[in-house]
User: Fold this.
Amino acid sequence: MRLRKRVNDYYDAEYVGNITIGTPDQFFEVIMDTGSANLWVPDTTCNGGASNPCSNKHKFVSSKSTSYAKNATSIGSYFKGDVIDGILGLAFQSLAVDNVKPPFIEAIDQRIMEIKCEALGTKKCPRTSRKE
Assistant:
């Protein structure tokens, strides 16, 4: 997963950004949500006719991704009318559905992303649970 551009701030109520998922990259616009810990985007199996919560959204095509791993969890239809494709949960693993590692933590562990101590307003970085 890669963040593709800066995050847009909508009056401190909603933060939206573009990410890529899979290999090769597939693009999605997601809400950056600090109250959840999972990544939710629709895939090509999301359907439902006129009531389809996935209509007019980018859909993940698993058959085109060499890095795909199946996770058969559904999000429901509450974001049907929203213009975004999904949700990127930024919370801790204790809030994750099925206790999966949150994508933000996975990105840090894979050293795709790093946390700058200055951004946290501290001179000393917090300890992590991973072994260095």
Notes: The chain has a mean pLDDT of 78. The longest strand covers residues 14-21. Residues 103-109 form the longest helix (7 residues).
